[in-house]
Structures are given as structure tokens and as C-alpha cells.
Amino acid sequence: MAQYKTDAIILSVHNWGEADKMVTLFSRNLGIIKAAAYGCRRPRSPLAGGMQMFSYLDVQLGEGQRLDIVRQCEMKLSFKALREDLDAMAYATFVAELVLGLCPERHPEPQIFDKLLQAYAAFSKHNPRIVALAVAYQFLDYTGYQLNFDTCVVCSTPIKGDAFFSLEQRGVLCSDCKSPGSDAFSDKLRMFIYQLRELDWLKPPVFSVSGGDLVLAETLLLLYLQNLLEKPLKSLAFIHQLSMLPGAKKM
Prior knowledge:
Mean pLDDT: 93
Shape: elongated
Order of helices and strands: EEEEEHHHHEEEHHH
Largest sheet: 5 strands, mixed, barrel
Number of strands: 8
Strand content: 15-25%
Number of helices: 7
Number of domains: 2
CATH architecture of the largest domain: Up-down Bundle
CATH superfamily of the largest domain: Recombination protein O, C-terminal domain
């Protein structure tokens, strides 16, 4: 059985059998890898500490017929804070699930990998709701599924000021091209989404946003993702449960 090494982030973990786990890894140079970690739930297993959600690892795997097998791992970053804060964990899980939905197996996505590491670090330092929203819009840009906010999707006229938006046409429309199903789309909301798409979590700027624009940006994103992925994201149910708690962040 051929073996290989890579650095990878754990995107999902499921208990399997009495002492094993099935994990989905995201490697910078290999993309998404599904693997089995045999015996990792035993207390003395050398894999026990590493096979946790969000862990960033140096990992050695063996090729298998259906699943690769985790042989060894060394922790690079544990992102333990994401497992200790419910809000951060919920939004980080949403981002991980989005990677799984947008990226095919064994297809490297280095920009998304690097942005995911930055996002995981940012979740414990900044509002996790804003972090998740910004990263999701950026992931769409990296994968080619982006929405068009700069020019009219019909006539290509540069958009200045208020406009209209069509989810079906995946972008903004000028007043001359608006369709019966399009919605009013303010320049303020467009500029906020543009800020999210350009946001650098290594040097995050200071900016403010109204609650109304935040909700609209989220609603637009989630409607588009549901249409794009053709299935609901399971993590949204967890976020919704947390949103019922007093003072919770919503999405």
C-alpha cells in the first residue's frame, strides 16, 4: 500500500465502529481526502489528539481502495478555541461544510486552503458571524461561482448607485434591464458585500454595518448557496438553534 504525507485541515469527523473515526481532510496540495483513522478513539492511540474537528495537521496516510488510512499525524495548530466557543464552532462548521460543498475531491484549492486557515484564526478574535459571511463570499470568488455586483449582468453597464438584483441571473441589474422578479438593491448593501469580498483577515479594517444590511447580505448568500448546492447546509440548523438564545448572533 503506497503511503504519502501532506498537511491538512480536518473538515468533518464521524465516529465509526467501536474505536475508529471517519475523517474528511482538506489538503493544500491534494484537495479533499476521505480517510479512516483506525483505533483513534482509544485513549492511548497516537492519533487520538489529532483526529479532532478543525485540527491542522501534518499527516501520513496510506492509500486504500475505498478510503485512505491515517497512519500518523502531528499537530500544527489545534484551533482549540473553536471547539470551546459555541458561536465560533457553529460558524466555523458552516465554513467547513461550505468547503465540502464547493470543492470536489482530490482537486487542490490553495487559495481556499489559505483563507480557511486565516478564517479559523479570526473566529476567536472577531465577530464569527461577520467572519463566516466574508469568507463565504470570498470562497465563491475563488471557485468561479461568484455573483456579479460590479456591472449589469444584461448590458454590462458599470453599476453606480442603487440598482436591482436577480438571483436567477446571478447578479445586479441596472434600471433599464431590471426584470419583474428582480429586487431593489441599494448601493450601501453592494458596498458592504464588496468590503466582505476584499476583506483581509491578516489586516482587518475597521468598518461598521447596519443590522438590516447584514441580514440582507446573509439572506442573499444563503438563498444562492441553497440554489447552487441543491441541498440545505446542516450547520445552519445548529446556528439557528444558537440564534434562539438571548444575545445570540444569527445567520
